[in-house]
Design goal:
The chain is mainly alpha-helical. The chain folds into 3 domains: about 130 residues; about 55 residues, no CATH class; about 60 residues, no CATH class. It has 9 helices and no strands.
Length: about 260
């Protein structure tokens, strides 16, 4: 028998002899590790169960938050209705001093704050932050609204409401008399949210601020841009009226004032 064939025969014999021993060793390993494997299987099941329960708990929290948010919205609507009734009654008297000035009540602010405090990580919680700022804006708490809109934008940078939040901040700044800052805030929307859907509104409000800063030629360009680009927009007619006022106003220098 050739040496090569002899070696092959010996190798096969060793394998044949070692195979039962190898199988026995595997069987012994499985037997000794059976409890460990069982523990691992149990651990996997427990982790999966915990994950499922956490998901269910998260869904339950979202549902609870949504219910509380809806209740806060109802309170907000009541506040707005009460304010509208009060202002109408005041107007009917013909005497501005007949009734004290009444702004939106604070109940809705507290209701929205409770939603965020109780459910900070939910969609309703993030929306509640936005509504806190809106409620403060409607109530005339402009400095508070500015801070609240900033808080909302910081905590919800990817929210569909983020651009509106920045716009709300600009409105609060304008109403508080921070004209130049308000203009900067509006201009930031075009940079951070180029697809902002209310471009006609954005242009009009930008023009108003430019006009307030006595940058009249720039304001005129913005008004004219609205008329040309958005012929079906309600802000077209408002822009036309604004241009008429610019035409009859004194001073056309593009001076910058704060």
């Amino acid at each position: 028998m050739a040496t090569k064939d002899l070696k092959k025969s010996i190798d096969l014999k060793i394998i044949a002899e070692e195979q039962p021993a190898f199988i026995n060793r595997v069987a012994q390993f499985v037997a000794t590790k059976r409890d460990t494997i069982g523990y691992i299987v149990v651990a996997i099941v427990v982790v999966a169960t915990i994950g499922f329960l956490m998901k269910m708990n998260s869904t339950a929290k979202e549902n609870e938050a949504a219910v509380q948010f809806q209740n806060a919205v109802k309170q907000y609507q009541k506040d707005m209705t009460a304010t509208s009734i009060s202002l109408s009654a005041k107007s009917d008297t013909g005497d501005p001093s007949a009734l004290p000035e009444m702004k939106v009540q604070t109940q809705s602010i507290g209701a929205f704050q409770a939603v965020f405090d109780n459910y900070p990580g939910t969609h309703a919680g993030h929306h509640a932050l936005y509504m806190i700022a809106v409620s403060q804006l409607n109530q005339g708490l402009y400095e508070e609204a500015i801070a609240s809109f900033d808080n909302f934008v910081e905590k919800s940078p990817d929210s569909p409401l983020t651009a509106s939040g920045i716009f709300g901040k600009a409105t609060a700044q304008f109403n508080a008399g921070h004209i130049a800052e308000s203009l900067e805030t509006l201009e930031s929307i075009d940079r951070s949210h180029p697809n902002f859907k209310l471009k006609d509104v954005l242009l009009y409000e930008t023009a108003r601020r430019l006009e307030s800063l006595n940058r009249k030629s720039e304001a005129r360009n913005q008004y004219e841009s609205i008329i040309e680009r958005y012929p079906d927009s309600p802000w077209k007619a408002m822009s036309e009226k604004a241009l008429e006022k610019l035409d009859v106003s004194n001073g056309g220098d593009d001076n910058k004032t704060t």
